Amino acid sequence: MNKPVISFVMAACKRPQFAMVALQSLKRQTVRDWELIVSPDDGEDYSALEHSDSRVTVARSGAVQTGPAHARNRALAIASGALVGVLDDDDYLEPAYIAQAVAHFKSDTAKFATAPTRYVLDPSGAVVRQIGQFATMDIERFGHQFGTMHAIGRREIYPQWKPGFAEDVMHTCKCIDLAGGEIAVLADANYMLRLHPGSLCAVAHCEDVSRSYNNLLAKLPYEMSRAGAMQTRTLLMQRIEMNKAFSGHGSGLHYHQFVKTRGPMFRSHRARVTE
Fold first, then answer.
1. Residue 110 C-alpha from the chain's centroid
2. What structural domains does the chain harbor?
3. How far apart are CA 42 and CA 102, in angstroms?
4. Cα 73 to chain centroid, rounded
5. pLDDT of residue 271
6. Is the pTM of this model over 0.85?
């Protein structure tokens, strides 16, 4: 049996209706050579996804509420594709996503890549903002996005996720570091990320979020190069500063609406400080 060109890992938790939408976005890909490994973390039955498409495998473990890092790692352990990507259970991909990845990784030197992320407000479908509009990304540039961009990479070097706060952000920093400090951004391969009313940035107290970032500052979860670790710590400090600014802004803006307007000024201020 031929192995797929790319394996997508999905941590699934209490959103089966969205998981089916995510699967539909894979079915619409211009490249059909893929597999989806669904890793339930809620004890629910996701066999409907397998019945919907033979390219779907459910990683059955009986694990419940172990967190997205553990769930993704269970999926990663059985992924067979030459490449690995992430597709969360409530997100979806634009049709050229896989084609862009395949074209990029034809180069033997390519280790990792990422794609722009569009934040979509659920249930309206309105795009709140889009990040990653550049050709390449290092950790510093990633930090200035104040958002998430999942890494695509070769399976033999793709790292596991470390459980904990902001595990997706920290994982991407690790991938950038493994690539030597910079990865390509696949311009036409947009990742569509749903924002729910219950999303962390919408419901959590900024003080709690900043405390979690400070805990990461105290001890990074990954071994990294000196430059990568320094840039990652700067990223975390910038997020703490942005949380403080958001906590005190006093308007009715959603976090990502606030960052969209404040981010450019924040970056300009940081540039002046470091000149």
1. 19
2. 6-274 (3.90.550.10)
3. 32
4. 14
5. 44
6. yes
